[in-house]
Write a structure and sequence with these properties.
With about 300 residues, this protein is α/β, with parallel strands linked by helices. It has 3 domains: about 80 residues, Orthogonal Bundle (Arc Repressor Mutant, subunit A); about 100 residues, Periplasmic binding protein-like II (D-Maltodextrin-Binding Protein, domain 2), CATH 3.40.190.10; about 100 residues, 3-Layer(aba) Sandwich (D-Maltodextrin-Binding Protein, domain 2). It has 11 helices and 13 strands. Strands 3, 4, 5, 6, 8, 9, 10, 11 and 13 form a 9-stranded mixed beta sheet that branches. It has a two-stranded antiparallel sheet with strand order 1-2. α1 packs across α2. The protein is elongated, with a radius of gyration of 23 Å. The relative contact order is 0.14.
Length: about 300
């Protein structure tokens, strides 16, 4: 029978497209990794990879086996967690994925409280692009994902947690009158700065721009909410910022004014997701309840 280690090496090659990169990720020598994959092919009696100077490409049967191997490796990690007694209590190390537009402004106070509540729990927080992290969740590379909806997956449990208001902001000395209600006509043609289009927040910004006749500034994609904050404060344009960012000590509203826009009701919905058959589901539900309570308290302050 194939070993889990051999399957792990095969999946790593599939993800990196290279024996050299896969060996680095797996922290083994390239000859060792190559030997194990060849042994796997001999055991299965079929070629799984097309090798070339440019890298390694999965054969059709290799793609099918990698898909099954991902599930097997994920199940194996869940078995280890279950054996460690983490299925019904907040213990051990959890790999939590989140978006950089949310994590830094929500997790800091939550993690401190969660640590007091569950001192034996360790959270390994990884920030990334939501769609990419959803794929990491289904692969088993992370255990739980906290981020904006939509999230979807046949094998996932998705728990909506709260709605977070989004605000249109401008520099303090912007020509738009911030004392009264800003109309669609006054916003028409204004440049709207956004993040990389792969972020959900950038997609919502594009919808807002279309609704109010603003123009997305393609030459000024921000790398973070902080970079958007800084660019807007210097007068480059307007942007969309989440309520938790504006209220946080990490972010804030220095140099900005929040515009009161006629008919403005813009939110994003935040949810938490995990693999449906994970034995740690009870622990994830406790975390979900805690995040929901803390977030609602922060937004009500």
């Amino acid at each position: 029978m194939p070993t889990l280690r051999q399957l792990e090496y095969l999946v790593t090659i599939a993800d990196t497209g290279s024996f050299a990169l896969a060996a680095r990720v797996a922290r083994v020598s390239q000859p060792t990794l190559s030997q194990q994959v060849r042994a796997l092919e001999e055991r299965l009696g079929t070629r799984l990879l097309e090798r070339s100077a440019a890298g390694a490409v999965l054969t059709p049967v290799g793609r099918s086996i990698v898909a099954m191997a991902r599930r097997m490796l994920s199940d194996a990690r869940d078995i280890v967690a279950l054996a460690a007694g983490a299925s019904d209590s907040l213990t051990g190390t959890l790999r939590l994925g989140t978006t950089p537009t949310l994590g830094p402004y929500l997790l800091s106070p939550i993690i401190a409280e969660l640590h007091r509540m569950a001192p034996h729990l360790r959270l390994h927080v990884r920030e990334g692009i939501p769609d990419e992290q959803l794929l990491e969740l289904t692969r088993g590379d992370i255990d739980v994902l906290l981020g904006p909806l939509p999230m979807a997956g046949d094998d996932l449990t998705v728990e909506p947690l709260f709605r977070e208001p989004l605000h249109l902001v401008a520099a303090l000395d912007h020509a738009i009158d911030a004392d009264g209600e800003t109309t669609r006509e006054r916003l028409s043609g204004s440049p709207l700065l956004t993040l990389d289009p792969r972020h959900h927040l950038a997609r919502q910004a594009a919808e807002v721009a279309d609704r109010y006749g603003m123009t997305i500034a393609p030459d000024y994609y921000g790398t973070s909410l902080e970079s958007l904050h800084q660019m807007v404060a210097t007068g480059l344009g307007l942007t969309l910022l989440p309520s938790l960012y504006l209220r946080s000590e990490v972010g804030g509203a220095a140099g900005l004014t929040v515009l009161r826009v006629e008919g403005w009701r813009t939110y994003r919905s935040i949810a938490i997701a995990w693999r449906r058959h994970s034995p740690m589901s009870p622990a994830f539900k406790l975390i979900a309840d805690h995040v929901q309570t803390c977030a609602r308290r922060l937004l009500a302050t």
